[in-house]
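#onboarding

Welcome to the new folks! Below is a worked example of what a typical request in this channel looks like: someone posts a single protein sequence, and someone else replies with the predicted structure as tokens. Don't worry about understanding the tokens yet, we'll cover that in week two.

Example request:
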Amino acid sequence: MEQMPYLKISLKPLQTTDEFEQIRQWRNEQMDILRQDHEISVEEQRAYAEEYFEQTKWEHPLRALFGYWVRGVMYGYGGLVHIDWIGKSAETSFLVNPSLKKDLLSYATHYLIFLQLLRAASKQIGIEEWTSETFTDTGDHTRDLHIVLQPAIFRDTKIIMPDMSTVLMRSRINASD
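Example response:
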């Protein structure tokens, strides 16, 4: 678990089906910014959670998901998905309670803190490179912040735009950062 105790903020591995139920609700409310083509049912989310908990027992899990907690309340979640243990890389994800996206400055602050905590967690498990995919045509300005903030934190970030609606970013996580 990575944390900033003075701010009462922590990144904790997802451990309960209740956390996954909260995530299901957030995902269904924000389908326009996700690669999700239908509302997730309670049963689908429960099956996903069970599969996720099972794969966390593996030596090299496919995903490492964390709750983003502020003063004992889960504000969001994210982590590393599509982990390539040989290439030491993973795709990052971050999603918050939709009500928190109304204040862009607050959202930006939480996103920066999340990235710092995730970087520490990534280093602990040997992940050296992140990729992320951001869709710019959603009308959601928090997505634009990802494009600005991730390169601001990591010196070695490459931005690729395969089309005008998608931005791919690859960031190296250097020990000296």
